[in-house]
């Protein structure tokens, strides 16, 4: 008999996310001069802060290279970014080894077929609402929100709520933010 979803989520220590289609809506804007623009959702960044407040590590694995991804990751203090790597299993394996983690301690948030190999490995695969059906079919959780519209934050909130740590995380964040306003 398999583990319950709550048991699986309770083991999560590390969250890996795709970028295009999860942290963004998947659109890529190009100017006449070739500059690239992406839209990131600020609530997803807040979700990363909430996760870090209770020592959940975050990493990004993007199949497509983008300078915007590097800039956003730096803003969010994400040190593990694999940007422009089509072999996501190789990056995933490096992260597992670096942090001495097992598959069942990792969640992955994805939206498309390039994410499937990693999603089949992790303990908790998560799909965004606008993911392709193949991804949704293997996910333990499918967000109500689309990628780029707060889906990452929703996934973080779901993990922390399922772990019974949501209030703890919010309190840590509040203590840090409002320390100068007491």
Structure write-up:
By secondary structure, the protein is an alpha/beta fold. The protein has one domain: Rossmann fold, CATH 3.40.50.1000. 42% of the residues lie in helices and 16% in strands. It is built from 8 helices and 8 strands. It has helices spanning 5-10, 42-53, 67-75, 88-99, 116-121, 133-138, 151-163, 166-177; strands at 14-17, 29-30, 36-37, 57-62, 80-83, 106-110, 124-127, 141-142. The strands form 2 sheets. It has a 6-stranded parallel β-sheet with strand order 5-4-1-6-7-8, sandwiched between helices. The chain has a two-stranded antiparallel ribbon with strand order 2-3. The longest helix has 13 residues, at 151-163. The radius of gyration is 16 Å and the shape is globular. It starts with a helix and ends in a 5-residue tail after the last helix.
Average pLDDT works out at: 93
Radius of gyration: 16 Å
What is the spatial order of strands in the main beta sheet? 5-4-1-6-7-8
How many domains in all?
1
Based on helices, strands and strand pairing, what is the structural class?
A: alpha/beta
What is the CATH H-level superfamily?
HAD superfamily/HAD-like
Overall CATH architecture: 3-Layer(aba) Sandwich
| Spans where pLDDT lies below 50 across 5 or more residues | none
Instruction: Note the main sheet.
Output: 6 strands, parallel
Number of helices: 8
Secondary-structure element sequence? HEEEHEHEHEHEHEHH
Could you give the distance between the termini?
51 Å
CATH class: Alpha Beta
Which range best describes the helical content: under 10%, 10-25%, 25-40%, 40-55%, 55-70% or over 70%?
40-55%
Find the count of extended strands (DSSP E, 2+ residues).
8
CATH domain fold name: Rossmann fold
Shape: globular
Beta-strand proportion = 15-25%
């Amino acid at each position: 008999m398999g583990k319950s979803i709550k048991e699986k989520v309770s083991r999560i220590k590390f969250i890996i996310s795709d970028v295009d289609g999860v942290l963004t809506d998947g659109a890529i804007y190009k100017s006449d001069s070739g500059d690239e623009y992406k839209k990131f959702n600020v609530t997803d960044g807040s979700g990363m802060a909430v996760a870090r407040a209770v020592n959940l590590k975050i990493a990004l694995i993007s199949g497509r290279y983008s300078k915007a991804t590097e800039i956003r990751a730096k803003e969010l203090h994400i040190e593990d970014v694999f940007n422009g790597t089509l072999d996501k299993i190789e990056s995933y394996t490096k992260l597992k080894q670096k942090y001495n983690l097992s598959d069942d301690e990792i969640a992955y948030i994805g939206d498309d077929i390039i994410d499937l190999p990693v999603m089949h490995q992790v303990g908790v695969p998560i799909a965004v609402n606008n993911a392709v059906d193949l991804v949704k079919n293997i996910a333990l959780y499918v967000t109500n929100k689309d990628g780029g519209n707060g889906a990452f934050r929703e996934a973080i909130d779901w993990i922390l709520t399922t772990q019974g740590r949501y209030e703890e995380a919010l309190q840590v964040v509040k203590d840090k933010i409002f320390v100068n306003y007491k």
